[in-house]
Here is the input.
Amino acid sequence: MKSKLYLAACILLSVACAGCDRQKSIAYAAAPPAATPHTTQTKPLGDGQDDNFVASGPITVENQVDVAALREGVIAKISADIGRSVHKGDLLAQLDDRQIGADVDAADARVRSIAANLKNWQAETKVFLADRQRAEKMWEANLITKQDLDHAVYKQEADVYEVQRESESLKNAQATERSLELEREKTQVRAPFDGIIARRYIHLGQKVAVGDRLFWLTATSPLRIRFTVPERLMQRIHAGEEVSVAPAELAGSEHRAKIVFVSPVIDPASGTIDVMAELIGAPRELRPGMQASVRLPLRP
Here is the structure.
């Protein structure tokens, strides 16, 4: 009897333990997974992440031109060389201007001659006008014939036309003189803007033709960088926003710049838009032509 009771107790204990294990497994299955803290990982720049975009392009300036000859001639003087800073209007070189100078002097003499002749005709007009007025009074007094009066009138009117002709001749001579003066000015090669001489293509005694390159002049500020961004970022880049510019060859150097232009047109071949940023301040270590990377913090 005792053995039967002991066996029954063991069976009940086993069933109870099995129920406890089942409840524990159900409880474990219903419990939510443990929460893990959210962390943001910064991806390397330029991998297409949403917070930053990196592009590259050359540092440029707006004013950068080859100064060309405006007329044919022989280089008589060179006043600027490579590396020299110049201001707008500074003389860079001088072409031989002896021939054009002589032409200007001749034109000036002709202007003075015609001006003197015009004054002579104007004085004669006053004389002929006085003669006409006297003839009219004498005609009224029956002291002269009608032919004498007509002669005085026609002479005075003809003199008026002579004055007009000399006036137009004077204008023509003055215009010719101004034209020659402009041609003489073309023999003086001057800087069109403030900048620095980057290259010199000419030598003393060299003959140049119209359009030949003489100097390469480049401005030094304001420095700008032009780059392209994908079409998908067009709505996230706006003029006035600041970006970071890092020259490729200057490790650790970073400068601030402000976007001044965002093209409204998308290049259909590449699917990109042009963007231009202007560097803030005047960084002395940067030069036009340097390659640099631009980091744009994109707004959501």
About this structure: The CA atoms of residues 45 and 80 lie 45 Å apart.
